[in-house]
Amino acid sequence: MFRISKKKIPEFLKAARVKFEVIAPVRENGASFFKIISETDKVYLGPGNTDYSPKRFFFPETEQMFAYGMEGKVTPRETVRKRLLFGIRPCDAAGLKTIDKLFESEPADPYYSEKRKNTLLAVLDCAKPGKNCFCDSMETRDAKEYDLLFREHGDYYYVDVKTEEGKALITPLFENADSEPEFKREKCKKKLQLVAESKMTFKKWGERCFSCGSCTSVCPTCTCFDAEDLVDFAGGVSRKRRWASCFTRSYSKVSGGHVFREPVPDRLKQFMLHKLKYHKDKYGPQMCVGCGRCISVCLAGIDITKVSSGK
Fold first, then answer.
1. Which pLDDT score is estimated for 135?
2. Which of 12, 23, 73, 133 is the most buried (most CB within 10 A)?
3. Quick check: bond before 90 cis, omega within 30?
4. Concatenated DSSP letters for the chain?
5. Mean per-residue pLDDT for 243-247?
6. What ranges do the domains of the chain cover?
7. What are the two backbone dihedrals, phi and then psi, of residue 282, each rounded to the nearest 5 degrees?
8. Residue 181: which of 159, 203, 196 has the closest Cα?
């Protein structure tokens, strides 16, 4: 067990930037999100989660899969630098572990896998969850997926080292902690309780839904995408994939123009049962990690904890 003064975190990140591309949470123009930081960026380590998850650094909004020209020469993918993702919360780390099952099951997705294997996780434990968090209910509050785990106590962060790569990040800025203090945590204000599927209120809440897809864009475990081939005037071809949302009408459109999930409540049902049941039936854990972002961002005020409990 080590500890580091909160005042030395900027210095720690500056040193890490020598060997790593450092990704950390910032707050700009009223929103909090993760970005590749420079010397001028101030890292935001406030309570609760960021407005946007760091999923995009593993599964970007738009990503070129490959490109080739008239002569058939394929443009190689850009290589991924070693990266340090600092300040990710336990729920988001659990989210990465969840989508690992989707992207790294054989045949593994090379675009995702390369980014994942080249990224170290420095997780920041949540002492005070956000107003819409319900990670206690989803059993994602305790960090399991990390290289370093930072826990706040007074003027220090106490640091647990899990991997050899994490150990290599320990510098003279850290000092040995003689003992582990008692870490205080506030409980999540929200709880998610599942009732029988027939009692869930999909119709009631689905009639309010705008089908905007905001919830799927901020969710750390939504991984649906569309692929498109683009041809330029010189004869070059590139294939790109872009995020897709199960809330859009086109998502369930099949040959012949039929949309088999036309009613919006059906789309809400698909989204929530995928998070809470279908994924669990296939892989074990529930797909939802309890970050609460879908509640915070919903323009219609739809609350997954209320829908799933039959309220």
1. 96
2. 133
3. no
4. -EEEEGGGHHHHHHHHTTTSEEEEEEEETTEEEEEE--TTPPBP--SS--SS-GGGGTS-SEEEEEEE-TT-PEEPPPPPPPEEEEEE-HHHHHHHHHHHHHHSSSSP-HHHHHHHHTEEEEEE--SS--TT--HHHHT-SS--S-SEEEEEETTEEEEEE-SHHHHTT--TTSEE-SS------PPPS-------GGGS-HHHHHTT-----HHHHH-TT---EEEEEEE-TTS-EEEEEEE--TTSGGGGB-TTS-BTT-SHHHHHHHHHHIIIIIHHHHHSS-S-----HHHHH-TT---HHHHHTT-
5. 96
6. 2-176, 197-308
7. -90, -40
8. 159
pLDDT digits (tens, 9 = 90+) for 31-75: 999 999 998 899 999 888 999 999 999 999 999 999 988 777 888
How many Å apart are CA 100 and CA 143, to the nearest integer?
Answer: 16
Q: How deeply is 230 buried, as exposed, middle or buried, from its count of CB atoms within 10 A (0-12, 13-18, 19+)? A: exposed
- pLDDT over 80 at 76, yes or no: no
pLDDT at residue 72, as a whole number = 77
Cβ neighbour number for residue 253 with a 10 Å cutoff: 14
Helix 90-103 with 110-117: angle, nearest 10 deg: 140
pLDDT of residue 193: 93
Query: In this structure, are strands 156-161 and 148-153 parallel, antiparallel, or unpaired?
Result: antiparallel
Which one-letter amino acid corresponds to residue 17?
Answer: R
